[in-house]
Each structure stands twice: as structure tokens, then as C-alpha cells.
């Protein structure tokens, strides 16, 4: 008679899941990780993105003898709206040396409700091109406005030419890194708030129910 001895193999204890290990980390680690990752990404973005330069030219509307300052202010508002139209930019591209599409995406015009002045701002990765575009659009706008000054009784004159900017107007890598770190810390805080927490009921679920001692139960029965 042969006896067979069965051996029971105990499986290896499962490894602790990554989620459990993440929950075991201190709460501030999520915020610290977000700050570090956001600052790193923001700094890399600031270094990789080419700098942008901004130049601004100013033109002013001047009333003739047959007009007044109120009319000049109104026409300045109108000239500000047409400064970035194709009719003006088509002439400006010749002096700026860039196509109309580049002027449309890089040039903006702004007016003031108190002064009959139009500010023409151009942005480019090259400081000389930014100044050339702003001056070219202001020149073309002045030319178009003065072609109709006999009808409008308002003359458009150049107030200040755009100069070549010495420093970029875009944010430096240090600033973009700081912005990225702030955004990463905020995101880490939101994740920390949204992380599920173990309730008190869950912690008490594994505790055994308390049973009264036999002596206490007998004493209570005698009182009845």
C-alpha cells in the first residue's frame, strides 16, 4: 500500500498595487509633483518658443478748417477699424516686404475714445520686421485717408514712427516656468481634493461585534 503525501504550495503574496503605494504617500507629494512637472514643462516651452517683438506706430486725425475735433475723433475710430482691411494691407505689403496674410495675423489697430489717434501694433520674431510692418500699415492708412480728406474734412497725419524694439515682448523662460509651476501646483491640489478618502465606517467594518459578558446578561435577567 503506497501512501501519497500531498504537499500544499502556498502562492506568493501578491505585490502591493501601485495605487495603494500612491495612496500611502503624504498628501503634499501630489502638490510638489505638480509644481515640479509644471515648472519643467513651462521652462521648456519658454526656451523652445521663439521670442516675439512688438513695435507700435501712431497716426492722428486732424480736422481741417471746415471740420471740428468731434468729427476728427469719429473718423479716427473709423480709420482704426479699416486699418487691418485688405485694401490697406494690400498697399502696406509692398513697403513691409511680407505678404498680406502675415500682416493680417501680425498687425492690430487700437483707438482711444478720448483722443483722435490710432495705434498700429505689429508683432514678429524679428524686431526689424515688426517695426517695418507697423510703419508700412500706418503709411498705407494715412495715404488712403488723405485721398478722401476733401470729402471728410479730416486729415490723417503720422504722429510717431515705430522703432526697432530692443527687448522681446514675449515672456521669458523664467516667467513661463513660474506660470507652469503655479498651474501644476493647482492641478495637484485639485487631484488631492478629488482623491477618495476611507470613511470611518470602512475602518470599523473589520472590527468584531461586542458581545455582553455572561455575568452581565444573567444579572439583567434576574432584574426582570
Shape: elongated
Rounded average pLDDT:
77
- Rounded to an integer in angstroms, the radius of gyration calculated over CA atoms is 37 Å
The H/E string reads: HHEHHHEEHHEHHH
Strand composition percent: 5-15%
Strand order of the largest sheet: 2-3-1-4
Description:
The chain has 224 residues and is α+β, with helices and mostly antiparallel strands. It has 10 helices and 4 strands; from the N terminus they run H-H-E-H-H-H-E-E-H-H-E-H-H-H. It has helices spanning 18-24, 28-48, 69-82, 86-96, 100-106, 127-146, 149-152, 173-194, 200-204, 214-223, and strands at residues 53-63, 107-111, 117-124, 154-160. It has a 4-stranded antiparallel sheet with strand order 2-3-1-4. The chain is elongated, with a radius of gyration of 37 Å.
What's the topology here?
Layout (H helix, E strand, L loop, with lengths): L17 H7 L3 H21 L4 E11 L5 H14 L3 H11 L3 H7 E5 L5 E8 L2 H20 L2 H4 L1 E7 L12 H22 L5 H5 L9 H10 L1
Antiparallel strand pairs: 1-3, 1-4, 2-3
Key structural traits:
alpha+beta, 4 strands, 10 helices, 224 residues, 4-stranded antiparallel β-sheet
Compact summary:
With 224 residues, the protein is α+β, with helices and mostly antiparallel strands. The chain has helices at 18-24, 28-48, 69-82, 86-96, 100-106, 127-146, 149-152, 173-194, 200-204, 214-223, and strands at 53-63, 107-111, 117-124, 154-160. The protein has a four-stranded antiparallel beta sheet.
